[in-house]
Amino acid sequence: MINSPLLQCNQVRKAFPKPDGEELLVLDGMNLELREGQIMGLLGRSGSGKSTLLRLIAGLAEPSAGEVQYLGHPVVGPARGIAMVFQSFALFPWLTVFENVALGLEAQNLPRAEIRKRSLAAIDLIGLDGFESAYPRELSGGMRQRVGFARALVVHPNILLMDEPFSALDVLTAETLRTDFLDLWAEGRMPIKGVILVTHNIEEAVLMCDRILVFGSNPGRILSEIKVTLPQPRNRLDPSFRELVERIYVEMTARPKGAGPGGRQERFPGLGIGSVLPHVGSNILSGLMEAVAAAPFKGKADLPEIASDLQMEIDELFPVAETLQLLRFAELEGGDLKLTEDGLAFAHADIDERKRIFLRHLLAYVPLAAHIRRVLDERVSHSARKSRFIDELEDFMSEDDAEQTLRAVIRWARYAEAFAYDDENAMFSLENPT
Amino acid sequence: MKRFEPYVFLKGLASRWDVLAFIVVIGLIAFLGETAHGLFDPLAKLEAVPLSLDPVHLPEYAARTTFRMLAALFFSLVFTLTYATWAAKSERAGRLLVPILDILQSVPILGFISITSVFFLSLAPGRVLGAEFVAIFAIFTSQAWNMAFSFYQSLRTVPVELMEAAESFRLSAWMRFWQLETPFALPALVWNMMLSMSGGWFFVVASESITVGHSSVALPGVGSYIALAIQEKNLRAIGWAILTMLIVILLYDQLLFRPLVAWVDRFRVEQEPGERVPDSWALTMMRRSRLITASTLAFHKAVFWTSRLVKRTDKPLVEEQDRPKRRSLDLLWVSLLVVAVAGGLWHILAVLVVNTPLAEALHVCGLACLTMARVFILIALASVVWVPIGVWVGMRPRAAQIVQPIAQFMAAFPANLLFPIAVYGIVVGKLNPDVFLSPLMILGTQWYILFNIIAGATTIPAEMRYAATNFGIKGWLWWRRVALPAVLPFYVTGAITASGGSWNAAQVSELVSWGHTQIRARGLGAYIADAAAMGNFHQIILGVGVMSLFVVVINRLFWRPLYYYAERKYRMT
Predict the structure, then answer these.
(1) What SS3 state is found at B466?
(2) According to the model, what pLDDT value does residue A269 have?
(3) Where are the domains of chain B?
């Protein structure tokens, strides 16, 4: 039975009830299979449901429809052979390293001597020798995550789930942990048979995984699957490595094909008044435009290049790039970010000129901003309550999204001096504050 | 195209918030005038117009009581801003002032009333005002200390960078106090004001009927109303008083504390985005109303102008130059201390030790041990009940949202209003008072344990809970290794407050009466209450002294080490 999968998801769907009675769909039609000896990557932005999927697999939550199967049996509740490593480490601060590692075995009611032996072995394996009696707060981030790994490995799981395990660490530490993990995996010294890694770091996925599933959002689903056949250990500077990274960027920035699903633009559906706006400030918008306008990009930048240049992960970069696209300051296509004429003009302008350009684009391409401005212009008092617009927005979106959208517009409008907003009174107005 | 709006001129004149604000402000002024005009009446007039149990009078009584609370809160604030600032700013003074505050905090409140009443009555001889002073001072003593403590601690922990910024912008000490230190201290101070308030409500009942020697004064108020109802065994009147109190506390919460908490939120230094910002309709009203905005503007102007008047004095960076001067100041300070300590010792010797037989002292210590046993047993019992419930509620955000405000409200409600009902039960059921009076001590204070546990359980990070589930940690192992350690720091905070409150409550719960029947539990609280009723000064001082001693020692040897241990080992960062 060498070919039977470790884990299978069949048509898994997850939705959460919203306060207004409708439901929020986070995952739909999810099919995947993990086979022995594989490291599978789930790559996508926050909100694409990849962490939710991981929790469904771990049995920490239940799917609304469909089924997760582990070794041919449905997963109901936390399964014995599936262990998890967390982004925030999730160590118990009142337990020593040893006690943290031993806890999972204690829960299995094993004899004391065995708990001790296995815990020390796991601590030894992961390179924590000498730290047994330390408390988590005494350790650096990297050492803490090692405890997280030891704690997961000690229960001898078949499948190791990793939820962005390196994203809370600094660059150097993360790289050390990655290589240590890959070494142990290659040498077969860990008891695990398969790994699922959730990440939003494209290079990390290409570095570690045998298969990468690229996730799209609203609702979360698999856009494509990419096989990585490069031999381990992989070299980030290797041309074929770079090529693969580039390919995934293109994949993730692809325009929607016709009316069908699968594109990035659907975050701003229809671009009417009811579209949810991202929370991106004017400084980072100007910053990205300046970076793209300057040498060596000269107005057109390759996304992976500018991402590594600016030390930004896709989670941070994409919303900014998309906002530029929304404001028609840039075009996103084929993994490239290309400034429009006005985008270039903005990058080279002084502060006042920038504000003028921004104001023009804001009122022309963000219908909500134009709408608020029109209302304020029409009224004799030139003022309007926030609740008026919130009510309008809530016809299209959830309460939280309405709040976020209005905040985004307020930020941009303040920068463009399109209108003023007084937070204490929750009032929009055309006046400048006194 | 402009839209036509009718009555636009009216819109400029007043907003509907202005109308609301107008009603509230005029109401407040009328209320203050109403309550203040009786202050200068002679005491004899109080006796001429006896209290009435007719519920028609309750609104007026409630107003008088509320006024006392407000006045005491005002004095507590003044005390806090001066005493705590002095303690924080002067290292020399702080060394003495902080321990004094610590002791004052542990002195039972009834002790303050009986010892100081003569002095305050003599301030306005023969007038109601003197008796009001006594009541207000009693409430003050139940509010001021922890407020001062919180302010002191905030002043000591202003972030270094903010201090350096203030320094580099050359703010004068006066400006720094109003622009940096006070705003920084406000959130903690408001929280402590709320705690103080519930302590105040508890003793307002005890402080309105003052007994000095053989004469007694009953100030018009809810407290006196209840005392009279107990005397006349009128359960219905007690029900009315409880209802009144519920309404008053609700109003206080809505009109004073909710707006304060919402307002103070902006002074938090580390603001977690995404956390829910507190909301208050009353604060919205104040912000929307031009009337009230104008009056706050006056305060800002005052701060602005006084800041200009008080010039910055440049402090030399190296303070070593003035060594001889400093040394002589130190010498002066130490000699003052020696004189004060010697004087205090002599007084203790002359008044207390000489007049107290050893047997009496031992007897009082024995009573204190009884009360201590009661407090500890009750805290343990309350913990066994409320810790599991609190954890259960805290892990469910929906339940926590409902239960948390209720628990806080219960903590604010003066539990001694419910005593008569319990006493009635004990009298009718002929129960053993030594046992059955005890729960009254914790009736009002157990809620601190509950709401701290709830707060603690809500802070357990989701990932940590997932980790526990993922590794199959269940049942007793889960309680032992996950839930209990996670809430321990919060539990200790709650238990300390509950324990302190229970010691104080002992004075009113160990000796209770119903009509002419008195029931007592053996303990230090009953001893002090007895002594206060008879006006026996030596016994009062002895009882109060022993109680303070016990509370201070228990805090130092038990609660404080436990608190630091829990903070160090179990606090999540």
Answers:
(1) helix
(2) 41
(3) 15-308, 332-573
Neighbours of A402 (CB within 10 A): 20
> Cβ distance A247 to A315 under 8 Å?
no
State residue B80 phi and psi, 5-degree precision. Answer: -60, -50
One-letter amino acid identity for A99? E
% of chain B residues with pLDDT over 90: 10
Taking only the tens place, the pLDDT of each residue in B314-344 is 655 555 556 677 777 778 878 888 888 888 8
Query: What is the number of alpha carbons within 13 Å of residue B177 lying toward its C-beta?
Result: 17
Strand order, beta sheet including A336-339: A300-302, A336-339, A330-333
Are residues B3 and A95, on separate chains, in Cβ contact within 8 Å? no
Q: Is B5 on the interface with A (CB under 8 A)?
A: yes
Cα B7 to Cα B14: distance, rounded to the nearest angstrom: 12
| A window 147-176, beta carbon within 8 A of B | 151, 155
User: B515: Cβ–Cβ under 8 A, 6 or more apart, which residues?
Assistant: B230, B231, B232, B233
Nearest residue to B449 (alpha-carbon basis) of B513, B499, B514? B499
Q: Residue B321 has what DSSP assignment?
A: G
What mean pLDDT comes out for the span A393-402? 80
CATH 3.30.70.20, domain A7-253, yes or no: no
Give the pLDDT score at B421. Answer: 81
Mutate which: A94, A144, A154, A376, vs B, most B CBs within 10 A: A94
| Fold match flag (B15-308 vs B332-573) | yes
Interchain pair B463, A88: CB under 8 A? yes
Q: Do the Cβ atoms of B201 and B69 come closer than 8 Å? A: yes
- Identify any residues that bridge with A24 across adjacent strands, giving them in sequence order: A16
Instruction: List, by residue range, all CATH 3.40.50.300 domains of chain A.
Output: 7-253
Identify the band that residue A2 occupies on the pLDDT scale cut at 50, 70 and 90.
low
Selected for mutation to probe chain B from A46, A55, A92, A118 (highest B CB count within 10 Å) is: A92
Burial class (CB in 10 A: 0-12, 13-18, 19+), A175: middle
A93/chain B closest Cα distance in angstroms: 7
**B279-314: pLDDT as tens digits:** 667 677 666 666 667 777 777 777 777 767 766 666
The answer to whether A60 contacts B466, with C-beta atoms less than 8 Å apart, is yes
pLDDT band at B385 (very low <50, low <70, confident <90, very high): very high
**CATH architecture classification, B332-573:** Orthogonal Bundle (1.10)
CB pairs under 8 A between A and B: 78
Q: Give how far Cα B346 sits from Cα of B112, B351, B365, Å.
A: 21, 8, 22
Interface test with B, best of A103, A139, A423 (most B CBs within 10 A): A103
Decide if B569 touches A, using CB distance below 8 A.
yes
Fold of A278-348: Arc Repressor Mutant, subunit A (1.10.10)
Determine the Cα–Cα distance for residues A174 and A184; give it in Å rounded to an integer: 16
Residue that the structure tokens 């031992």 belong to = B362
The three-state DSSP-derived secondary structure of A119-173 is HHHHHHHCCCCCCCCCCHHHCCHHHHHHHHHHHHHCCCCCEEEEECCCCCCCHHH
Q: Does domain B15-308 correspond to CATH entry 1.20.1250.20?
A: no
Range(s) within chain A of domains with CATH label 1.10.10.10: 278-348
Instruction: Judge: A107–B3 Cβ closer than 8 Å, yes or no.
Output: no
Contact criterion met (CB < 8 Å) for A58 and B466: yes
pLDDT for residue B77 is more than 70:
yes
Q: Write the pLDDT tens digit of every residue in A101-117.
A: 998 888 888 899 999 99
